Amino acid sequence: MPSYTAPTKDMQFILHEVLDISAQDIPGYDEMERDFTGAVLDEAGKIASEVLTPLNTVGDTEGCRMENGVVYTPTGFKDAFAQMKEGGWPGLDMPEEYGGQNMPYVLGTAVGEMFSAANQAFTMYQGLTHGAASAILVHGTEEQKNTYLPKMVSCDWTGTMNLTEPHCGTDLGLMRTKAEPQADGSYKITGQKIFISAGEHDMADNIIHLVLGKIVGGPEGIKGVSLFIVPKFLVNEDGSLGARNGVSCGKIEEKMGIHGNSTCVMNYDEATGYLLGEEHKGMRAMFTMMNEARIGVGMQGLAQAEAAFQNALEYAKDRLQGRDVTGPKNPDGPADPLIVHPDIRRSLMAQKSFTEGGRAFLLWGATLIDRAHRGEDASADGLVSLLTPVIKGFLTDQGYDMTVLAQQVYGGHGYIEEWGMSQFTRDARIAMIYEGANGVQALDLVGRKLSQDGGKHVMAFFDLVKDFLKKNEHNAALKADFLDPLKAASKDLQAAGMYFMQEGMKNPNNALSGSYDFMHLFGHVCLGLMWAQMAKAALTALETGTSDPDFYETKLATGRFYMARQLPMTATHLVRIQSGGDTVMALEAANF
Amino acid sequence: MPSYTAPTKDMQFILHEVLDISAQDIPGYDEMERDFTGAVLDEAGKIASEVLTPLNTVGDTEGCRMENGVVYTPTGFKDAFAQMKEGGWPGLDMPEEYGGQNMPYVLGTAVGEMFSAANQAFTMYQGLTHGAASAILVHGTEEQKNTYLPKMVSCDWTGTMNLTEPHCGTDLGLMRTKAEPQADGSYKITGQKIFISAGEHDMADNIIHLVLGKIVGGPEGIKGVSLFIVPKFLVNEDGSLGARNGVSCGKIEEKMGIHGNSTCVMNYDEATGYLLGEEHKGMRAMFTMMNEARIGVGMQGLAQAEAAFQNALEYAKDRLQGRDVTGPKNPDGPADPLIVHPDIRRSLMAQKSFTEGGRAFLLWGATLIDRAHRGEDASADGLVSLLTPVIKGFLTDQGYDMTVLAQQVYGGHGYIEEWGMSQFTRDARIAMIYEGANGVQALDLVGRKLSQDGGKHVMAFFDLVKDFLKKNEHNAALKADFLDPLKAASKDLQAAGMYFMQEGMKNPNNALSGSYDFMHLFGHVCLGLMWAQMAKAALTALETGTSDPDFYETKLATGRFYMARQLPMTATHLVRIQSGGDTVMALEAANF
Lengths: 592, 592
What we know:
The first copy, chain A, is an alpha+beta fold and about 600 residues long. Chain A has 20 helices and 11 strands. In chain A, a hairpin with a 5-residue loop joins strand 8 (about 235) and strand 9.
């Protein structure tokens, strides 16, 4: 059975030596000193390894089952959920007034990576509740906040997001779920929603569904969509639970993975709903929390890659097979461990350099969220809004590929379920799809985010890279291995942006045909920037003296691999982008 | 449920207009005229679509089950197997004297792609039988051939290959299965083999296991390995079945995919075995058929990509979501079909250009097998031996990636099992692993095949490319779109080979660290060559007049996409290769 050890040391390095969070002028960050975050991360890591990891295989094997409309989670989930609640983990970064601990989002993200890595299907129950609670926090009335948030912050009640319908996912303007206004100000919600994660289960007293629907008589299409709170059980004025609402689970889906999470068809039959936010402004309300939700999914991609990598690494050290071509490394044994072989190294280094670089990228993004929300900083908000599709699309695509690499290290043992490596790839696969399929992320990036606010956020990103290069140009230890490759990659990104500006004007298909490559190009530049920053931090530590030189030397070596082997991919992405839309769009649909 | 339509038209184009098989001087090819191959392919395509495709989901859902040592295949498999036998398909390319139809391997490969695409798990039962029969054909005594081949060619008896043991897969020198010589010339085989596809099932009267083991007292390691025939039921002198042999299935594995194929732990307990080929030359006997087996696996990668692509294409044409950014294409409907969107196009074109290019590569490789075996041509044998790891590794890696792309077109519907897209990726995943994991293919390519016979086969490949470029240099319609990109990619491949020669001498890790990239670089150049040849054939057809210009124009457009968008990947592979082994090998194992 796979194991998982939380990468606390690496997270601490990123938080304190790369991002230097406790020195950042973000409200609440002054409390984020190394000892404090270390204590929180250690505690979370223990729960991840000891409570959640053992349930990961159980969840995959048993799955959820539905009997008479009741959905049962896998053995042990209920107890573990109670333990999570007891520890106050679901409310870690929620406001104190609703029972949360008011920690920054960046710390919640680090903890979230651990929980997701240990058990993605399980962690989604609280992740979705977090998302729904955030929406109520921003858009809810005082009464709504007081009614729902204390219970949701504690996860006594869980939450869901209901967007997709059988005939529409990305194009939500096509939705048919309708909301009929009632005399008392509530609405009767009728329609069918699909792919509702945690839509029904046995771990909470109540489930608060956030449902997109169209108010009868409102505008056509996406402009007529509103957001509603639809509790499974109506809530009495005193906060106690009342009658069962007209919402039920029609079936749970058989899926490729995340079997421990119930993916439900939800039927709304004149269910009582309460408008959340303004009429016909449902999409805006959803989008408020979209950045966070998408960053959370990017985190899942990274998390599965980390968990899979850890196991592949152990296997590569244990499994004896063949000999080192330069001479035996285990001469007394029947063979050398897999890790001596260059191609196994290539795979392990790809995984390691991705997870460490991706983690820095993710946590940097999380500090931008904190700066935007806690610091009310509009430029941070703009920058993270630009980076969000990259975090989501790049980290989940690459994260998935890394789970495939990890599985491959096991040979045939990676394909049978016994070793658990198949589950990592099957679970990781969903993150490329939900919260906006990655093609939609690429479209969002190139079609909207690049030009947002006159393109000033992408300029801010380039300035960041330029500043870093400039500030360190005389650092000989960084130059050839880190600065030069970063500069080259960043130039590729700029050239791609330039191409879109020039050719996208003539024909938008020239830009959109390259959107996916651009998202990946951008992701590589971000990881290149992270690696350059981490290398700088490592060099600093080595120069100023450290009791753990191996850690920093390893960091540098891992970074050199990324810069030499992975970052050059930007050149091919650029060539593809610059080939334009002609070859992509040439065929008539009928001629495919 | 997914559907499948055999790509007969495309196969005919490749066989007759690109490879011009009936004009090739290979024994038996003169009969391969267009009408003849068309009739065979049409018939096979019907069986694939009508008999095998409907059982694909059944096999995945039901899987195999074992009760009291008996393994039951999924509902319908037995009847379908009987139908395959009745049609004589298992013996299509086997010798007439054993009941086969003596068709060339290239035709068997085309038919095999259809069957695999329709139902990989099912088709493996006869595929493994084919492999085992081939080994007996080459290495068996007359008596062995007469005893086993007629029944195996007809698939009344099926066959298996037993290599892997719990502690050894790639490194077969570690194996423990032992063979004790008996007075009558037979051996008693004792040991455990794992991952034995089709090891036990209910579709054949007898199962002929080919088992690698070590004769007691023989040399240590790989030099002491011999190959044995171990029938499930001993065969009496009159050909009737005798006593049950000491071989049994210990369990069947739970796997990520190919659930319809029984993957067995096989226990040999003093089972009676007969030496196949020479003592201690078991590996050589296995390797004889390795090229064919590996090409067969490459074919599976392509086949799953084709099946997945066909369904993704249909979905992209049907599913209405969003609007074409250049103006509605379905103005009377609520939205445009997915296929209008550039990023969906990018994905579909990647799939289409891979499957068509890969098919040409595969069938070209199959003609080399025919030339080598039927024509006893040593250079063809050398060339296909060089290309085999590329066919296996590149087509299965890329084939898998294509199934992931196809699944992505479906959004959330791709993740639930209902639509069948998950099965394509889960089934395709195994092809990257078995018959030598793709890392081992890369090692074989760079460590052995490149320098085989003084490197003359890779030189022959480069000559082939050069000849094509030279012969067509004045063809203006080919030059910019096809010849120039092919030339550039081929130069990258040569530069990589040069790097290996120079730097691999100094340190073999410099070559082996780039082996995987080299395999993919080589694969792209092969597909580039195929596309250039197909483009030439298409242009010829358009110039000489055709009643179906759309087919050829589509072929050209698809090729242009590959050359412009996919082939440039060779540059990044080269950069990675030239970065050498330093960053790959830098870390001590303990510091990972």
